DNA sequence: TCCTTATTTAACTCTTTGGTTAAATATAGA
DNA sequence: TCTATATTTAACCAAAGAGTTAAATAAGGA
């Protein structure tokens, strides 16, 4: 994956909000979709972008697919940011 | 400004690399442009996106325009990221 | 098996993005 | 003033993004 995938995934407000929602625990695709004024298909695509970036993981459970946050990937972003702020000039 | 502008600006690899270059001190548009295999016009547009997001500041000095990093804006991103990692569930 | 629900995938549209070249602007110097 | 240099802006183009609706897939239950 890498930083590029991560940053691209984080550049969309809906995707960032999805991550925020998942901070509170796992949610099904449907539960996530209810919070946004777009179609389920659109949300599904956002989820696949986040999954591609490994920012979320999914588990099928019967009829539902549950998504959960994988915050470990954010470490790389944090490192890049602190590198930019610190060790200045 | 806001997080959205910042994240959008950070989503492009050339723009991130420009910020990395500026970590070492101010550089003119031309000096920045030399490091990338794209036209000066393209670099100029990247610079204007970064400036729009207030991630860089510019100062004209004679024939040259110098750009410098404004890392303070990154604080908001850091906060958002730590919020996502910490205070979990 | 058939029907309903949950979710994704396909096909398509519209907008945004990142690049190009050419023209415009700003400044220094002969 | 004329010319050369530094940089941006304008006009354009192709590719990527994000949305839509409709069809496909997956699973549960009558």
Question: What can you see in these coordinates?
Answer:
- 2 copies of one chain form a homodimer.
- Chain A is α+β, with helices and mostly antiparallel strands and 89 residues long.
- Helix content of chain A is 55%, strand content 16%.
- Chain A starts with a helix and ends with a helix.
- Chain A has a 3-stranded antiparallel beta sheet with strand order 1-3-2.
- Chain A is elongated.
- Chain A has a single domain (3-82), classed as Winged helix-like DNA-binding domain superfamily/Winged helix DNA-binding domain (Arc Repressor Mutant, subunit A, Orthogonal Bundle), CATH 1.10.10.
- Chain A binds chain B through residues 3-4, 7-8, 10-11, 13, 16, 19-20, 23-25, 69, 71, 74, 77-78, 80-85, 87-89, and chain B through 3-4, 7-8, 10-11, 13, 16, 19-20, 23-25, 69, 71, 74, 77-78, 80-85, 87-89.
- Chain A binds a DNA duplex (30 and 30 nucleotides) through helix 3 and helix 4.
- CATH class of chain A equals Mainly Alpha
How much is the radius of gyration of chain A in Å? 14 Å
Number of helices of chain A: 5
Unreliable parts of chain A: none
Order of helices and strands of chain A: HHEHHEEH
Portion in helices of chain A: 55-70%
Largest interface (CB < 8 Å)? A-B, 27 and 27 residues
Gross morphology of chain A? elongated
The name of the CATH architecture of chain A is Orthogonal Bundle
Q: CATH topology of chain A, anyone?
A: Arc Repressor Mutant, subunit A
What do we call the CATH homologous superfamily of chain A? Winged helix-like DNA-binding domain superfamily/Winged helix DNA-binding domain
Strand order of the largest sheet of chain A: 1-3-2
**Could you tell me the strand content of chain A as a percent range?**
15-25%
Number of domains of chain A: 1
Q: Major beta sheet of chain A, specifics? A: 3 strands, antiparallel
Q: Whole-Å distance between the termini of chain A?
A: 30 Å
